[in-house]
Design a protein that fits this description.
about 250 residues; alpha+beta; Zincin-like; 2 domains; four-stranded antiparallel β-sheet; 8 helices; 9 strands; globular
């Protein structure tokens, strides 16, 4: 595919390569806009997607992954640009951009100069966003119950900054207005579910550590959330989530 100009909108790139996407499974396909070594391609595509729970296919839409060198943020509400040169203004540099094409969700992911762990986290966060958007109602309800239990126990912290900020907004502004409380709660629940799903998916694929800090949710609450997600989306065979499961699997092997 002759993409040889400096920048394209992600919609334009997606349209140009739509017929050349390489299927990985029934849900995912991908395309590389520049050559990528086979070993690197396994780390970008095959390994992270193989670690996904199989039942996610019942929730996720069709997803196309575009591996591109760089992504540049443009004006608000304008499409991001795929760049084949480093973005001069680092504040405009993006790791991921999202669009849709013929009912397929397209993730453009930057690969140049990106640490593989950061790439995996970014990919899983994008997938988690789609899962949270299409999550079955029983999961949303049960996750909401856990959040209510945490609030009743005055549990401090969250999974990461985005959900922490949403939690603070809910706690500070939820009194005295039922409609406002409902809106704030829905936003917080959705962001918290996404952030927890990101941790869940990333934890299946990679050995990760949750950094302790004043805004970090206590491990016992994190564990309950992850157990819920593991029950809703059983792990693929041969994968583990919790440290004791990893140790047990190592001994049996």
């Amino acid at each position: 595919m002759p993409i040889n100009t400096e920048r394209f909108s992600i919609q334009d790139v997606a349209r140009q390569v739509a017929g050349q996407m390489v299927p990985v499974n029934a849900t995912f396909s991908f395309f590389c806009t520049t050559p990528i070594a086979e070993e690197d391609l396994r780390q970008y595509i095959q390994e992270p997607l193989a670690a996904l729970p199989p039942t996610l296919s019942q929730v996720l839409p069709k997803i196309g992954i575009l591996l591109v060198p760089y992504i540049e943020r443009t004006a608000p509400r304008s499409p991001a640009l795929v760049s084949f040169d480093a973005v001069a203004d680092l504040e405009k540099s993006l790791l991921i951009a999202e669009t849709t094409l013929d009912q397929m969700v397209i993730f453009a992911l930057a690969t140049s100069g990106i640490d593989m762990s950061e790439y995996h986290y970014t990919l899983y966060d994008g997938i988690a966003g789609q899962v949270a958007k299409h999550a079955p109602e029983p999961l949303v309800r049960d996750f909401g119950k856990l959040l209510r239990e945490e609030l009743e126990a005055s549990a401090n912290g969250e999974i990461r900054e985005d959900s922490w900020q949403m939690k603070q907004k809910y706690l500070q502004r939820s009194t005295g207005n039922g409609k406002r409380e409902s809106t704030l709660w829905a936003g917080y629940q959705r962001q918290s579910l996404r952030d927890t799903l990101t941790l869940f998916l990333h934890g299946i694929c990679c050995d990760i550590d949750v950094e302790a800090g004043p805004r970090q949710l206590a491990s016992r609450y994190v564990r309950k959330r992850l157990e819920l997600l593991k029950s809703a989306f059983p792990l693929p065979e041969g994968y583990a989530l919790f440290p004791e499961q990893v140790r047990r699997r190592s001994k049996t092997n």
